[in-house]
Structure formats: structure tokens, C-alpha cells
Amino acid sequence: MRKALLALADGTLYEGVAAGSDGLATGEIVFNTAMTGYQEIVTDPSYSGQIITFTSPHIGNYGTTTLDDQSGTVHTRGVVMRSLSRMASSWRSDTTMSAYLLEKNVVAIAEIDTRRLTRHLRNTGSLTAAISSDLDAAELVDRASSTPSMTGRNLVSEVSTRESYVVSSAIERRGHVVAYDFGIKRDILTSFTSRGFDVTVVPAHTPGSEVLAMAPDGVFLSNGPGDPEPLTQPIASIGAILGAVPVFGICLGHQLLALALGASTYKLPFGHHGGNHPVQHAARGTVDITAQNHGFAVDLATLKGSPRPATPGVPSGIVTAFGVVDGTHVNLNDGTNEGLRCRDVRAFSVQYHPEAGPGPNDAAGLFDEFLNDISGVYAETV
């Protein structure tokens, strides 16, 4: 086994063994607390520009299968693990995780004390990092420290589709949704097609006027990577669509909807990445365990012209250019905003992933809620 090094921008070094392709990987390093779903995570376009540390100690136990890919390629810049399984114990498996990383040309490192690394990131906040089996420690630290942070970076342009395409309903057709691809996952498309809706997926830069010309029954704003504030064209497009058709956003789509309404966003210390985040519906008091992957959050208080409150809360009754907006959900770990709904236009969004893939299915009913906004066919379940 070849030795490899992981270097953080603050000079911290971790020695392990190379577990993937040769080369150099640089990016923002984050930790993901999911117990399963490693293949879905590395193929999630929201991880573009990042190195993933898996806190689950054993990765690769059940191998990989093309059925679990959430996009056409691996988007994470690198992978950090405690232990990489040499075997794949599942009837669904096509190959081992080790072979998968090599096939996809992913730089990875194993035999790292991921508990120590995660505690360090929780204390310092997310850092840029570098992985290599070829460079010495000093050069690797230099590469890590010279890697740009996520703040101010438009990574959506790297992952969004270049051309529009259509995914047809898997059952009797009930309607048509246009989905903005800011880094959309395949399980999101399945969440619509399995409910009877054709989906037209459009590039992130598509003007709102072009989307409305397609006569959609609703518009979906997908997840995606990076800082939402540089995405001025999508923000303007959302503003042009609001009030014309129902709108539903998740993750980055939630942040972009909030920006279109006039709110601002901010960088979280180390983000939310995993499948076990408790989110409370403010009005109902119910709690969903959710799948999350984001490094920025919405500050709804800025719609009132006030700074983010020091104590957790969900602002409501905020008057905007698009009518009244209410915060709807709160993260019970840190009190950050996890959802909003517009009273006067049919639009709502959440900060988490209701399609899971991987993760719990507690919030899957949000797709039904959106389709109920469109047609009234589905009962509101969330």
C-alpha cells in the first residue's frame, strides 16, 4: 500500500494510505455523518469543489451499483475514510468501492483518524485541504492553503446541464414540471416521474421568460454546489417566475428563492452534511429527520432589515415585494432557517433533501405538497 498525506490549510497533517486514483485533490474539506449511501453522496453534484470526510468508520461494505449513481460522474474532489472495505457484500453490487474510485479517477485516502479530523473541523470550521501520495508535506500544505474557499464561487456553471432535456412520466401523465438544474440529482427526477409528471430539465442560466414559454404547471429549483449569492442570473429568473406558476425549491434552490425575495445568505462554520439532521416544522411542532448537504444558510431576518438573531427563531409575517413570507422550518441542531413559504404567491422551499438518496424519507411528502399546489390532486401531507 502506498502512503498518502492529507494536509489542511492551517498546516495540520494526517498520514494514511492511498485508496483511489493517483494525483492531487484539492478543495474545501467537509464531514458527512451518513451511515450509508456513500455512492449517492460522491455522485451528488452539490459536492463539486469539496473533499468529503466520511464519519462512518467503514466505507464500501456493500460495494457499488450504477443504479445508485445520482449523476453521470463523481463530483467530489476527493474522499477521506477511516477504513475502506476490500469486499462488497451485497447482491446488488457491481464492483467494490475501491475499484469504483479507481474507475472514476477519484483521489482518496484511508486509514485516517476521521474522528480526530471531524472534531478539528468542528472547532476550526471548514478548511481547504489537499490529498496526495506524491507531494511532500510542505508542498501539500501550500497547495491546501492556496485553494480558494467556497465563498463567492459560482460552481453551478460546472455541473448544470448544457442543454435542456425531458424525462417522461413513469405512470399516467398528470402534468409538466420545469426543473432548473443547479446540480440536480436523479432521485429528484424520479420523485416527479413516479407521481405522473413529465420533467423538462433546463440549464441554470435559462431566463424565466423561456421557462414560462414552456407553459409548465410548476417550476422546481434544484440543489447545487457553492455560494448562492454570485448566481445573479438564476436569482433574476426566479423573480420573473414568482407569481406566474407554483415554485418549489430545495437546498441551493431554497437559498436562491430567498435571495429572489430579498433576503441574504451566509456561510456556515462547517455546514450540514449527513442524513440525521432534525428539522422542526415551526407551526405544527412536528420533527423530520432529514438528509442535508449545504455550506450556506438563509438569513430571513434580513427581509425585515434586521441582523440575524442570536437565539434560534423562525421569522414570520415578513412583507416583501412578492407579498408576505413566513419562515416554516428550523434546524434543531443550530437554529438555522430550514424553510419558507410565500402567502401571496404559490412558492415554498426547504433547505434539506426530501428525495433523500441517501437518507431518511420523512420529508418525501413535500413533493406531494408541491403537486397539490399545482393541481389539488394530492393531499397536503407536510
Could you provide a short overview of the structure?
The chain is of the alpha/beta class and 382 residues long. It has 10 helices and 20 strands.
Structural overview:
The chain is α/β, with parallel strands linked by helices and 382 residues long. The chain has 2 domains: 3-146, Carbamoyl-phosphate synthase small subunit, N-terminal domain (Glucose Oxidase, domain 1), CATH 3.50.30; 156-375, Class I glutamine amidotransferase (GATase) domain (Rossmann fold, 3-Layer(aba) Sandwich). It has 10 helices and 20 strands. The strands form 3 sheets. Strands 10, 11, 12, 13, 14, 15, 16, 17, 18, 19 and 20 form an 11-stranded mixed β-sheet that branches. The chain has a 7-stranded mixed barrel with strand order 1-2-8-6-4-3-9.
What is the strand and helix layout of this fold?
Layout: E1 3-8, E2 13-18, E3 24-32, H1 38-42, E4 50-54, E5 58-59, E6 78-80, E7 83-84, H2 97-103, E8 107-110, H3 114-124, E9 127-132, H4 137-146, H5 156-159, E10 165-167, E11 175-181, H6 186-193, E12 197-203, H7 208-213, E13 218-221, H8 232-241, E14 247-250, H9 252-261, E15 264-281, E16 287-299, E17 318-320, E18 323-331, E19 337-342, E20 347-350, H10 365-375
Parallel strand pairs: 3-4, 4-6, 5-7, 6-8, 11-12, 11-13, 13-14, 14-20
Antiparallel strand pairs: 1-2, 1-9, 2-8, 3-9, 10-12, 15-16, 15-18, 17-18, 18-19, 19-20
Helix pairs in contact: 8-9
